[in-house]
Each structure stands twice: as C-alpha cells, then as structure tokens.
Amino acid sequence: MRATWSCLVFLLACSSFHSQGRAAEQNRYNVLFIAIDDLRPELGCYGVNHGQSKSLDEFAKTAVVFDRHYVQVATCGASRYALLTGRSPATSGVTRSNGALYSGKSALSHDKLPQAQSMPELFRRSGYRTVCIGKISHTADGRVFAYNGKGDGRDEVPHAWDSLPTPFGSWKRGWGIFFGYSGGRSREDGGGHKDLMDFQAEKDEDLPDGLLAQEAISQLRGFKEKKERFFLGLGFFKPHLPFVAPKQDWEALAKEDVDGSLSPKIDSPYWHGGGEFYKYNAPYEKTRPLSVEARKTARRAYLACVRYADRQVGKVLSELDRLGIADNTIVILWGDHGWHLGEQQIWAKHTPFERANRSVLMVRAPGVSLPGLKTGDLAETIDLFPTLTDLCQPTFKKTRFALDGKSLKPVLSGEAAVRDTAISYWGDAVSVRSQTHRLIAKIQKKKIVRTELYDLSKSQDSIENLAESEKETVARLVKKIPAKLLAGEGMRSGFAAP
Questions:
Q1: What is the C-alpha to C-alpha distance for residues 451 and 448, in angstroms, rounded to an integer?
Q2: Which 3 state secondary structure label does DSSP give 387?
Q3: DSSP sequence for 167-215
Q4: Cβ(147)–Cβ(249) under 8 Å?
Q5: Does residue 162 lie in a domain region?
Q6: What is the DSSP letter of 281?
Q7: Angle of helix 208-226 versus helix 292-322 axis, rounded to 10
Q8: Residue 297 lies in a domain
Q9: C-alpha–C-alpha distance, residues 56 and 358, integer Å
Q10: Mean pLDDT, to the nearest integer, of 306-322?
C-alpha cells in the first residue's frame, strides 16, 4: 500500500512538472508593437547623417535592424491589413483600400469565429491582455469613423482588443488627434486648418503623440502591477502629414545639412504629383519641382517630426526597462511604409517604387535576436505575424486564413535568410524586389502589359528602365509573381485615401 501511495505521489509530481513545463513553453513573451506612420529609414542606425534619432539608434544597438524590409502596400490601411491578418494581397485582394478591415469583400467578420481573424485576436484568445493605443489599424483609435466624425464607432479589428484607451485631449476624437495641430486645432474640425507645417508647441504633451506615450507608460505600469501577459499595440502618428512637432524639434533641425538637390523625374505611369502634400498651405511657393530652399524646408519638417516621434519611443522603452519587464518582452518597431521626400520628383507614398515600400523594421526578442545585428536579408511585413507566433508560442493557434508570411526567427538569430525576393503591390502593379533589382509588372486582364526594371545596387532612386536590355532578369523575377495573379485571381483595386 505504501509503495502504491509513493508511486502515486511520484506520478502526480511528474504530471505537475510536465504541466508547468508546457505552460512555460507557451505564451513565452509579452509583446510591445510600436508602429510609426510614414516612417522611412531616415535614421542614424540606417546610415543617415542629417537626421536626429537618438532613441531609435540606441534601441537598434539592442535589436536586429532590417535594412531591406518591405511593406505589402504603400498606403496605411492596406499595409496594416496585411500586418494584422498575415495575408498577402495576392490572397486577400487588398492592393489599395484603406477600409479593407471593415468594408467590402475583405472585411473581417464581426461574429466571433472558431479561428482568430487577426494577430491581436489570436493573442487575446491565448490569454494575453491586448491594448491598442493610437494607430495600429487604419483608424487613429481603432474605431470606425470617417474623417468628419460620422460612423458607428465599431471596432475596426473585431474581437482583437481588450481596451482602446487612446487619449483624445483637446482634439476630442480619433481623426482629430491624427490630423491635429497645436492648441486643439485639427485639419478635420471644419476650421479650414491646412498648414503643411506647425512647430509652435512647447511641450511633447501639447501634441497627440506625447499623450500616446503617456498612456502607453501608464498601461505598462498596470501590466507590471497585475503581472499580466500583454500585447500592447502603440501607433504614433508622426511623421505623417501635416508636419507638426514641438518648437524644439524644428529648431534642432535648423542647422542640419539637409540635401536640397533635385532628383530627376521617373518616366512611369505610376508617377504621381503628390496631391495630398501639395494641398496643404506651405510657407514657400508650391512650384513643380520645388525650389532648393523649399525642398530643404520640407525635408527638415519631416525630420523634425521624426525627432519628435523618436523621443516618444524613447520614453516608452525607458519605462519598459525601469519596470524590469524588458527581458521578457519582444519589442517590434515598424514603419507602415516609406515616403518619397522629393526623390523621382514625388512627395508622397502610394507608388510601387523603392522609397514608398522600404520601411523601418527593428526586432528585439530576448534570448533569440542578436543585439546590434544589421541584416541585409529581405523581409516582408506579412512575416511579422508568423514570427511572433513562432517566438511566443501562444496557446491559441487557429487562424481563419493561412498565414502567407515566413517566420524571421532564423534571421533574428543570424542563422539563415528566409527570402530571396520581397513582393509589394500597388493597384494593378506587382513589384518584386531582389537583392539588386526591382521589377514592376503592370497586370491587366490576366496578362502582364508593361514591365519596368531598375537596378538598385548603386542607387535606390534609379530611374533607368532596364526592362528591354535585361530581359533575362525580367524573366527570372516575373517567375516570382504569384501564379494566381496571372490567372486573374486575387487582385482587386480600391481607393486609397491619405
């Protein structure tokens, strides 16, 4: 009897140990996902000398910096749709639409399904506390409203977030803070405010991004106190238009040697005149092309906004360290797409070219990523969903759609690359990026009707179309285009709002 009892105790102990082991293997990390709108790699850690990005440069020393990360679509909503669902435009059909999450055939269901429809929903159903501050999906606060405030305010990403505590301050609503100026004014408040630049604010918290950082710090303290596993999505607005930041940031950039050279115009049907940028009231004459001084002024304004956003990121990361939870928290710093600062005579995103699709990506995964590694391995935004599930091992793993990306864990650990090309989309264009070239294929009625090929090995702003002279390269990269697109499946164009 005594032997039987001893055996039972031993088996129970083994079972308990095994259960604890399995629990430790799942929900391994917290996640702090920081998105920055319109952030191209204009940072010191990316080799840029004329900007000021102290906090991000310091973070880069502890993370893996992806020098060749490409978004799926160079517009906010479609890029974030790909991020949150893990779906390529080749399967979702979302090649432009900013409302893809809540309207049309691509919209997520508001019914709770047996499978998760998005990344944060999967983590929420795994027991994480999920919180969204600012712009993680397309809307500025995670709720569906039009720029003018009309709408029902439903969650843009159904069943994803436990809390949407975006602070509105004196701007009172989501799109108000997104297009906010100092003093509680907004582009969308009916007051006719359309200045391209506003650098009057004295304090960080006099503008929306400062309030977002404050709220994020408060949330981190709450997670620490309650000992909760968390997924915190924090989406800063700047440097998105209009260019608004505190006075100190404009003054700090006043003496920077910003390039004012004129870039040659690219001969492509995908060139456009930057309507959003030019509709603002500028402190200079809005010529085409802009004058040297106007180009310098606009670029300094963008960099001032980057400096402001950088400081907010620094505050949040410092608090993560102070609370002692950095060692079990994955931090991802992601730009939703790039931006042309006059290169190829474009002042905008919304193109299939390099500047619009290459964006910032830095990942710190404690115990996995190599601190300070700067990798030239290709990566796509859709790789982030499978990367996080691979690293965190959440308890709930069912997704409504198959994830189209690849885990970047081998890249983070320095073991191996996972891609030889990265693919982006813009309307009827599919853009294939290799280590040296970018192919742009215009697809209509199931056929490729035009190709552009640019050698980017010497300059990412090349405008010489080599499609006729390098047909073998074109043929090789065309093979990377998903076959279903040439079979007429998978591509639908939608209107892209700013």
A1: 7
A2: helix
A3: --GGG-SHHHHHTB-GGG-BTTSSS---BSEE---SSGGGSHHHHHHHH
A4: no
A5: yes
A6: B
A7: 20
A8: yes
A9: 17
A10: 98
Q: How far apart are CA 495 and CA 498, in angstroms?
A: 10
Domain count, the chain: 1
- Using pLDDT thresholds of 50, 70 and 90, give the confidence band for residue 23: very low
Q: How far apart are CA 181 and CA 118, in angstroms?
A: 32
Asked whether the beta carbons of 209 and 309 are under 8 A apart, the reply is yes
Q: CB of 333 within 8 A of CB of 63?
A: yes
- Contact between 352 and 270 (Cβ < 8 Å): yes
Q: Is the pTM of this model over 0.90?
A: yes
- Using the 8-state DSSP alphabet, how is residue 37 labeled? T
Element housing 124 (H / E): helix 119-124
Q: Count the alpha carbons within 13 Å of 347 in the hemisphere toward its beta carbon.
A: 26
Find where tokens 């199931």 sit.
446
Residue 392 CA to residue 367 CA, distance in Å, equals: 12
The answer as to whether 138 is a domain residue is yes
DSSP 321-344: HHTT-GGGEEEEEEES---EESGG
What 8-state DSSP symbol labels residue 8? Answer: H
Cβ neighbors of 461 (< 8 A, separation 6 or more) are 263, 343, 344, 354, 355
Range of the domain at 50: 27-419
Share of the chain above pLDDT 70, in %: 93
Six-digit token string for 429 = 């264009």
Of 319 and 7, the structure prediction assigns the larger pLDDT to: 319
Name every residue whose Cβ is closer than 8 Å to that of residue 367 and which is 6 or more positions away in sequence.
Answer: none
CATH number of the domain at 252, please.
3.40.720.10
Q: Which of 229, 216, 290 is nearest to 260 (CA)?
A: 290
Do you find a cis peptide bond into 242, omega within 30 degrees of 0?
A: yes
Inter-CA distances, 227 with 201, 323, 391, Å: 37, 11, 20
Contacts of residue 292, defined as CB under 8 A and 6 or more positions apart, other chains included, come to: 260, 261, 262
CB atoms within 10 A of CB 493: 14
**What tens digit of pLDDT does each residue of 42-94 get?**
999 999 988 899 999 999 999 999 999 999 999 999 999 999 999 999 999 99
- Asked, for residue 441, whether it belongs to a domain, the answer is no
Q: Which residue has the tokens 């500047």?
A: 355
Rounded to an integer, what distance in angstroms lies between the CA atom of residue 37 and that of residue 35? 7
Which amino acid is present at 295? R
Contact 377, 64 (CB under 8 A): no
Q: Say how far apart CA 193 and CA 187 lie, in whole Å.
A: 5
Q: What is the pLDDT of residues 424-457, one digit of tens each?
A: 999 999 999 999 999 999 999 889 999 999 999 9
